[in-house]
Write a structure and sequence with these properties.
Helix content is about 20%, strand content about 20%. By secondary structure, the protein is an alpha+beta fold. It has a domain of about 90 residues. Strand 4 and strand 5 form a beta hairpin. It is extended, with a radius of gyration of 25 Å. InterPro entries: DUF6970. This is DUF6970 domain-containing protein. Keywords: Signal.
Length: about 150
């Protein structure tokens, strides 16, 4: 048994040892048009960490309720989140609601009524499907307006 394990390990090592990997980096050409020596041109693009939305929601120009201003101030008092916090207004179930994006990862997003009372968590959590209290939110929400997003 021990010999078989050693033989299998030796086989895998020898099979992988002959593999060569070539890594290339997109670069801008140097001013002279050629590269000589050990200099490497700078990459052509920068890394991004903030996701790009598939579309930009129409901005909401209505007055923000005091509880929402407090929520925005609390977000700005913390360090920048990744992804950034976005607040959107929708019509849902015959009412105006506010959707506040999750701070990160498996955390819940919030849907609140116009008085700041939590209605549900439509997404997030371990399953990504929220708390189940408004499973139809994605299908029934309408009239999207961007209220605020972290400008940092």
């Amino acid at each position: 048994m021990r010999l078989l394990s050693f033989t299998a390990t030796l086989f895998l090592f020898s099979a992988c040892a002959h593999q060569q990997v070539s890594v290339t980096t997109p670069t801008t050409p140097p001013p002279s048009g050629s590269v000589s020596g050990t200099d490497t041109p700078a990459p052509t693009s920068t890394n991004t960490v903030d996701p790009v939305n598939r579309y930009v929601a129409e901005s909401d120009t209505t007055a923000r309720p005091p509880w929402l201003k407090q929520r925005i101030a609390a977000v700005l008092a913390e360090r920048k989140r990744n992804p950034i916090t976005r607040i959107l207004r929708y019509d849902y179930g015959g009412k105006t609601v506010y959707y506040i994006s999750a701070p990160c990862c498996d955390q819940y997003s919030d849907v609140l009524d116009t008085k700041g009372k939590l209605i549900c968590h439509p997404d997030g959590g371990i399953t990504g499907k929220g708390d189940g209290q408004c499973a139809d939110f994605e299908k029934r929400k309408s009239n999207e307006k961007l209220v605020w997003q972290d400008p940092r």
